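Expect chain and fold; see below:
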Amino acid sequence: MKQVPKPNTDADLIQEFLNNGGKVKKGKTKPMPDGMGLSNNQWGNTLTKEEKAARKAAEEARKASTPNRS
């Protein structure tokens, strides 16, 4: 099969979209759930109860040790 390039390019398609009233806007993403692991070998796996308790205790200790600046 012969590969024939199309006459229009991505830049042409984008310009046509903008000319027809299209707008470019920044998308919003959802925040990551608290129970998800972030390291490569834990990606997508939820934390165990012990890990959640340890994370919560560390966060509470951090909040307690941080002085309020107002």
Observations:
- Residues 49-65 form the longest helix (17 residues).
